[in-house]
Amino acid sequence: MTEMGRIQVFTGEGKGKTTAAVGAAVRAIGRGLKVLMIQFLKPPNSSGEQIAALVLDPQFKIKPMGRKGFIRRRGCEPLDQVMAEIALNEARSEIANGDYDVVILDEINVAVHLGLINVADLLDLMDSKAENVELILTGRYAHPSVMERADSVLEMKKIKHHFDAGVPAREGIEY
Question: What ranges do the domains of the chain cover?
């Protein structure tokens, strides 16, 4: 990428934050760029985008760096904080090595909200990214300081969703 990379935030209560990031990844790949998605709080083999990325390898890599089970159901444990810190260090390293034009930190906003990552560490990562790297941060509860520092913020708003009627998440559609 020869143009200056920006920082984008996809946040809000509605569905589609990760999907929007994957859409940005597909557009970038279509133009010859390399994309990395580091997934905070998501375990391997847990989502359709992880499987789809295998088809797009080596232009698109996803590194899921969470453990099985939803934190909201089981609560945060010390291991979750360790894994989030490892994921953040991986993000720093990958951004610094310059192999990727677009880096997506999926669910990092939730990791900050839950206290697994210090917002100051995320702000430092945002400030230290290479000029040519596009950085996309996803997840509900984006911290006001993160939104202020970003170049673009998109908030997903739920108007109506079938989950509210008790329809469970469907493989291939919601995950």
Answer: 7-155
Digit-coded pLDDT (tens) for 117-136:
999 999 999 999 999 999 99
Write out pLDDT tens, residues 56-88: 999 999 999 998 766 665 568 889 999 999 999
In order, the DSSP letters of the chain are --SPP-EEEEEESSS-HHHHHHHHHHHHHHTT--EEEEESS--TT--HHHHHHHHHTTTEEEEE---SS-HHHH---HHHHHHHHHHHHHHHHHHHHT--SEEEEETHHHHHHTTSS-HHHHHHHHHHS-TT-EEEEE-SS--HHHHHHSSEEEEE--S--GGGGTPPP-TTTT-
Answer yes or no: CATH 3.40.50.300 is held by domain 7-155.
yes
Question: The whole model's pTM is what?
Answer: 0.93
